[in-house]
């Protein structure tokens, strides 16, 4: 209470100043009267009084200079106290200033009793002429002011019909009235009461700070999820490393009895496998001459390193979700699509992500099985660019997961909509990228159930569309370029795809040969794979020979690296092959194929360049889902299929598998002699890849011999075991 009394006079003064500024006259009288009755000190704000006094003096000085014709004083005050932003940007201020210059230019002509002083008149006319050539030039195209640009050059403007109005009695008083109103408006705006200034400064600043903090919190949460995923992956890799090391140590210990290596050397090797904190104690306490000691200790070291349990995400009300996705506002639809995508992309690989995806599928989130005219899938054709893009991102996220691809591939309905959107979308690059990414992932497998989708893509003329797009590769983003070439190569592995290319053999060969020299070196394996595959058709080989394809390829042999040279040599051999006939039969497409191709690879690109950000107090992401759409037991257990993500890869693998660029963004080890995806190529440049022998590898007829299978337990199962080094002609 004491603090209030100490500042009461100042606070009441601020209130009075604001009421006066806002012209609450009756309220101000009542307020002043009540303060007087209660004996409250009521003083006018010192700052307000000072501002009012100063403004009043400036206005009086400007009007006095106007009346006396003192041009220099007036325009010094005008430029010193009228904000430059108003003088340069406000049309009313610009027009008024133009007429004020005319007023001072002709002042002597109107107010001199005799002949005006020629020198002073010439000086005023010269000043006006300079203004017209500089600041006044902006109005030279305005019909209202155009005649006045001739004023400095007219000998006697008083008798000129164009300037007759300027010398009539009402003109000067009307101009002065306009000036007074303008000054009153300007200085009132600049005399903002202190109470309003305090509110604006603190209120707006706090709002901006809160918004920034909110955005930072959202980003921090996303980064936290990313780091946690990396941490869990490192822990898993650590477990794998220790397990493998234990096996190696068992083998090394077996040699101790044969005196092949000394126990001391074995001890030093094993100790180096442990963390710095463990080395010293192990070196002192473990007897490495006893069989099994080291491997037992290695396996025991796994006990304290446990992966953190990851809880399942809350269940959702999918009926309400789908209803709002169809009937809600475009902004709500965009936030829901974003939140549902984030559930997939930020969830932990394993049970958490599998449960999320299974809930989406079991509740038919995308309405893939719906026959209604209004479905979630129809958002691909929304009028809103943001909604279209976010729907495409969500479909691409589904396609990045094995079970998601199976869900989308159950009919050609989704494929047709994606193809339609792909060919129509010319505004949003990211929308097209995500649709192209999803289609490319549909082309991964040659066996049931996605074989009909590949066939449909080929029959729908997607190869022709890809060739048309790839004619101008420099106009494409890296993502679009890489996925377009990868999709083209995967479709060219099919017999129908090769025969389709034969219809425009010259164009296909020209596009692929041009792409060989493209600056994006990540697409080379796909280009090589497509070339090798289509050259199994005799008519395409003939066209290639006629256009001098061998000479083109030889140019790249001179410039390429060892792997590129090796691949091109195989293409040249295929160019000279005479084995297959035109019109490859389709029956060979029906051969059974391994069902172990499906692994999950979630791309970082799915969440890049978000278009929408929540405003202060607006829900988004997981908070939106769990606050507005919390459900009961919609999460269901995932039924694992044979050959899903837990498959161990070993021994000889099929030589022909389509691939996806996204399958290698995580940087798995790759085979040196394999054509690789963009992400594999980037990783390969930073890795030491062993040169693997070509012997003892099953090879299909007419296929380039491939290397031994990769022995790394981290081999990426989404990638083909071989493309160039195994593009089977029976496909």
Protein model, in words:
By secondary structure, the chain is mainly alpha-helical. Helix content is 57%, strand content 0%. It has helices at residues 2-21, 25-37, 46-68, 71-81, 84-89, 91-105, 107-111, 118-133, 171-190, 194-254, 263-271, 276-285, 293-300, 318-327, 330-346, 351-362, 385-399, 402-408, 413-424, 429-442, 451-459, 462-470, 478-492, 495-503, 505-516, 524-534, 538-546, 549-559, 562-575, 621-628, 678-685. The longest helix has 61 residues, at 194-254. It is elongated, with a radius of gyration of 40 Å. Interacts with TOGARAM1, CCDC66, CEP104, CSPP1 and CEP290. Interacts with NDUFAF2.
In short:
The chain has helices at 2-21, 25-37, 46-68, 71-81, 84-89, 91-105, 107-111, 118-133, 171-190, 194-254, 263-271, 276-285, 293-300, 318-327, 330-346, 351-362, 385-399, 402-408, 413-424, 429-442, 451-459, 462-470, 478-492, 495-503, 505-516, 524-534, 538-546, 549-559, 562-575, 621-628, 678-685. The chain is an all-alpha fold and 731 residues long.
> How would you sum up the major sheet?
none
Cα shape: elongated
Report strand %.
under 5%
Task: Tell me the count of domains.
Answer: 5
Measured as a percent range, the helix fraction is 55-70%
What name is given to the CATH topology of the largest domain? Leucine-rich Repeat Variant
Average pLDDT metric: 74
Judged by helices, strands and strand pairing, the structural class is: mainly alpha
Strand tally: 0
CATH homologous superfamily designation of the largest domain: Leucine-rich Repeat Variant
Total of helices: 31
Amino- and carboxy-terminal Cα gap: 89 Å
Low-confidence stretches: 274-289, 581-597, 637-657, 663-731
| Assembly type | single chain
CATH architecture of the largest domain: Alpha Horseshoe
Radius of gyration: 40 Å
Biased composition (Acidic residues): 585-607
InterPro entries: ARM-like (IPR011989), ARM-type_fold (IPR016024), ARMC9 (IPR040369), ARMC9_ARM_dom (IPR048959), ARMC9_CTLH-like_dom (IPR056327), ARMC9_LisH (IPR048957), LisH (IPR006594)
Region (Disordered): 581-607
GO biological process, one term: cilium assembly
């Amino acid at each position: 209470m004491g603090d209030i009394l100490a500042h009461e006079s100042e606070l009441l003064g601020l209130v009075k100043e604001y009421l006066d500024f806002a012209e609450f006259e009756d309220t101000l009288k009542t307020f002043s009267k009540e303060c007087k009755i209660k004996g409250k000190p009521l003083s006018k704000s010192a700052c307000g009084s000072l501002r009012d006094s100063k403004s009043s003096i400036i206005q009086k000085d400007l009007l006095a200079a106007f009346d006396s014709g003192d041009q220099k004083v007036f325009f010094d005050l005008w430029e010193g106290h009228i904000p430059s932003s108003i003088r340069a940007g406000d049309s009313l201020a610009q027009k008024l200033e133009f007429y004020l210059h005319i007023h001072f230019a002709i002042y002597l002509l109107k107010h001199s009793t005799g002949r005006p002083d020629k020198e002073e008149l010439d000086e005023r006319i010269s000043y006006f002429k300079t203004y017209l050539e500089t600041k006044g030039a902006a109005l030279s195209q305005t019909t209202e002011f155009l005649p006045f640009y001739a004023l400095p050059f007219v000998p006697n403007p008083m008798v000129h019909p164009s300037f007759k109005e300027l010398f009539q009695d009402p003109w000067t008083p009307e101009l002065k009235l306009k000036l007074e109103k303008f000054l009153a408006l300007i200085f009132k705006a600049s005399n903002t009461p202190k109470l309003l200034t305090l509110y604006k400064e603190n209120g707006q600043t706090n709002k901006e700070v809160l918004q920034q903090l909110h955005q930072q919190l959202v980003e921090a949460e996303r980064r936290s999820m990313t780091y946690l995923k990396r941490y869990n992956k490192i822990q898993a890799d650590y477990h794998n490393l220790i397990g493998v090391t234990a096996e190696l140590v068992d083998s090394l210990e077996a040699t101790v009895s044969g005196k092949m290596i000394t126990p001391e050397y074995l001890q030093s090797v094993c100790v180096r496998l442990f963390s710095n904190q463990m080395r010293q104690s192990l070196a002192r306490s473990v007897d490495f001459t006893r069989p099994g000691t080291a491997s037992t200790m290695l396996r025991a070291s796994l006990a304290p390193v446990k992966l953190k349990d990851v809880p399942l995400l809350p269940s959702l009300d999918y009926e309400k979700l789908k209803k709002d996705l169809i009937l809600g506002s475009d902004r709500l639809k965009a936030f829901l699509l974003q939140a549902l995508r984030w559930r997939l992309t930020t969830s932990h690989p394993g049970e958490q992500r599998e449960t999320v995806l299974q809930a989406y599928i079991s509740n038919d989130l995308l309405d893939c099985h719906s026959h209604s005219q209004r479905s979630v899938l129809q958002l691909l054709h929304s009028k809103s660019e943001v909604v279209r893009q976010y729907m495409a991102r969500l479909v691409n996220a589904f396609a990045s997961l094995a079970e998601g691809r199976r869900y989308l591939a159950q009919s050609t309905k989704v494929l047709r909509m994606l193809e339609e959107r792909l060919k129509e979308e010319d505004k949003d690059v990211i929308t097209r990228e995500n649709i192209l990414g999803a289609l490319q992932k549909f082309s991964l497998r040659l066996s049931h159930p996605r074989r009909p989708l590949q066939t449909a893509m080929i029959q729908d003329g997607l190869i022709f569309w890809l060739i048309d797009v790839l004619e101008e590769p420099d106009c494409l983003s890296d993502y679009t370029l890489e996925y377009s070439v990868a999709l083209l190569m995967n479709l060219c592995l099919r017999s129908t795809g090769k025969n389709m290319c034969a219809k425009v053999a010259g164009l296909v060969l020209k596009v692929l040969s041009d792409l060989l020299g493209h600056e994006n070196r990540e697409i080379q394996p796909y280009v090589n794979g497509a070339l090798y595959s289509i050259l199994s058709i005799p008519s395409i080989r003939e066209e290639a020979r006629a256009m001098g394809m061998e000479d083109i390829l030889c140019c790249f042999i001179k410039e390429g690296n060892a792997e590129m040279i090796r691949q091109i040599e195989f293409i040249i051999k295929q160019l000279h092959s005479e084995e297959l006939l035109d019109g490859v039969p389709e029956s060979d497409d029906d051969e059974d194929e391994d069902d172990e191709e499906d692994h999950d690879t979630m791309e970082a690109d799915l969440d890049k360049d978000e278009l929408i950000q929540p405003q202060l107090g607006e829900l988004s992401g997981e908070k939106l889902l769990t606050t507005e759409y919390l459900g009961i037991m919609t999460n269901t257990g995932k039924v694992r299929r044979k050959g899903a993500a837990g498959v161990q890869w070993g021994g000889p693998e099929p030589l022909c598998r389509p691939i996806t660029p996204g399958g290698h963004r995580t940087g798995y080890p790759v085979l040196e002699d394999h054509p690789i995806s963009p992400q594999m190529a980037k990783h390969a440049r930073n890795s030491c890849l062993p040169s693997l022998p070509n012997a003892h590898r099953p090879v299909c007829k007419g296929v380039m011999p491939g290397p031994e299978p990769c022995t790394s337990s981290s081999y990426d199962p989404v990638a083909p075991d071989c493309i160039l080094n195994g593009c089977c002609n029976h496909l």
